[in-house]
From TrEMBL:
It comes from Luteimicrobium xylanilyticum. Keywords: Carbohydrate metabolism, Glycosidase, Hydrolase. This is non-reducing end alpha-L-arabinofuranosidase. SUPFAM superfamilies: (Trans)glycosidases (SSF51445), Glycosyl hydrolase domain (SSF51011). The gene is abfA. It comes from the Bacteria. The keyword Hydrolase applies. Homohexamer; trimer of dimers. The keyword Magnesium does not apply.
Length: 498
């Protein structure tokens, strides 16, 4: 098969916001304890945070981190997690039916993020709590000395406000599993009032209102419009969450996941714009895609009430990824780049151990899962402006997403004119892709590719290293391409590759 991608550096989608390369740390399983934080680990710093995990976080290129949840936040009393750790009590987290040791809280996380140069994105509890606790948390984080909650922060040892800019108004409030789940009207009203109070504390913050927790929720669409009808003038972003997996060996649909994500984004944007139209508003709501990843949810969902309560940072949702999963992650990033104008924020869920690109062993090593590589490469190379491409490619039929293109593409150009092109071949044959670069001087540098594998993924660093060796490789650009100006470059894409 053949495909043709046409690009021109003047035809642009929009600026690639660096926050597109975010991730997520929830109090869930081993994301915090033995993930980012493990006092006594050979690489732990004086605050108890693992240096090896922080270094991999930098290598991954993560720009923002969402915290503390997720489902966890909907039953979290943030006040219980500040002050001297020795005075804090462990508590039962109902979201994951786990005993939370309560050693890491708002201050520990925010100070770690600050030391590591990663922007925090905080979520407030709109499940079991409400307006007062949300406004108090903003004051605790961002307030100047002289009022109750800001003074508590100072008493806890932190004088300077943290200046947290981005705030989520709860998490997945449409989901019946959410502690304190609400219907769209209840949530819309609460989010509007909480958001109003939070902005009265700090008008500089930006707010994310909860969209649907998945496109297949029965309330999808209606939820977005109702919630935005209460919050349109107040919020900046609406959240999207999506997880993809290979169902019953349907590889073709799984490889087409990026098209599912593309349609989901278009529908949410259309819903938001419909609210704007009704209000005759020129304001444009953008998307915070604050949970996305491959997650084998069908087979491995924990937290059911018939499971015993777990303690000591249990191993839950520790999905092990293959080269195939990594190809899909790369392709999902292609989709996100193509919506750079409407999706400024996205978080790969999650960062470490829980459906994560980084894994650790308590007391032992930290390693990269296969999905680490396309993320790190895209975060490093996709800079500046996303280009508005024309992609002509055959399509193929899938059970889940209907007809999807065989080849997907995204491209960016930075201030220095450096062009990066991202391509996926979703089919099982080699595809010759002609990239026609009108108006662009193309000097080709090294290319990298991720190949899908067919072996089941095996837990542990050895298999991850094997996938890295066998599937993650340098593309031989010298033979495959012809540099030139205003010409075209032909690239042979291996079967099922990113
Ligand atoms: O990321 C894991 C969980 O998935 C989050 O806690 C929740 O928001 C979503 O359902």
């Amino acid at each position: 098969p053949h495909a043709r991608v046409t690009l021109h550096p003047d035809f642009r989608v929009g600026t690639v916001d660096r926050r597109l390369f975010g991730s997520f740390v929830e109090h869930l399983g081993r994301a915090v304890y033995t993930g980012i934080y493990e006092p006594g680990h050979p690489t732990a710093d004086e605050h108890g945070f693992r240096r090896d995990v922080a270094d991999l976080t930098h290598e991954l290129g993560v720009t923002i981190l969402r915290y503390p949840g997720g489902n966890f936040v909907s039953n979290y009393r943030w006040e219980d997690g500040v002050g001297p750790a020795r005075d804090r009590k462990p508590f039962l987290d109902l979201a994951w039916r786990t005993v939370e040791p309560n050693l890491v809280g708002t201050d520990e996380f925010l100070q770690w993020a600050e030391r590591e140069g990663v922007e925090p994105m905080m979520a407030v509890n709109l499940g079991t709590r409400g307006v007062e606790a949300a406004a108090a948390l903003v004051e605790y984080c961002n307030g100047e000395a002289g009022t109750r909650w800001a003074d508590l922060r100072i008493a806890n040892g932190r004088t300077e406000p943290y200046g947290v800019r981005l705030w989520c108004l709860g998490n997945e409030m449409d989901g019946p599993w959410q502690i304190g789940h609400k219907d769209a009207h209840e949530y819309g009203k609460l989010a509007a009032e909480a958001g109003k109070a939070m902005k009265l504390v700090d008008p500089a913050i930006s707010l994310v209102v909860c969209g649907s927790s998945a496109m297949d929720m029965p309330t999808f669409g209606e939820w977005e419009q109702t919630v935005l009808s209460y919050t349109y003038d107040l919020v900046d972003h609406i959240s999207m969450h999506a997880y993809y997996e290979e169902h019953d060996g349907d590889r073709a649909s799984f490889l087409g996941s990026g098209t599912g994500m593309d349609r989901f984004i278009r529908r949410v944007v259309a819903s938001a714009d419909a609210v704007a139209a009704r209000r005759r508003s020129d304001k444009q709501i953008t998307v915070s895609f604050d949970e996305w990843n491959v997650w084998y949810l069908d087979s491995r969902f924990p937290g059911e009430s018939n499971l015993p309560i777990q303690r000591d940072a249990p191993r839950i949702i520790e999905d092990v990824y293959s080269g195939l999963d990594a190809v899909v992650v790369g392709d999902l990033l292609v989709t996100l780049l193509n919506h750079a104008d409407r999706v400024p924020v996205a978080c790969l869920a999650q960062l470490v151990n829980v459906i994560a690109p980084i894994m650790t062993e308590p007391g032992g090593e930290a390693w990269r899962q296969p999905t680490f590589h396309p993320f790190a490469t895209t975060a490093r190379l996709a800079r500046g402006e996303a280009l508005d491409l024309r992609v002509e490619a055959p399509s193929y039929a899938t059970a889940r997403h209907g007809d999807v293109p065989l080849v997907t593409a995204a491209a960016t150009v930075d201030d220095d004119g450096a062009l990066a092109v991202f391509l996926t071949n979703r089919g099982d044959e080699v595809v010759e892709v002609e990239v026609a670069h009108a108006g662009a001087v193309v000097t080709l540098e090294q290319g990298r590719q991720m190949l899908a594998d067919r072996e089941p993924a095996v837990a542990g660093p050895e298999h991850a290293a094997k996938v890295q060796r066998e599937c993650w490789s340098t593309v031989d650009v010298a033979r495959a391409v012809t540099p030139g100006s205003g010409g075209s470059t032909t690239i042979r894409l291996a079967p099922e590759s990113w």
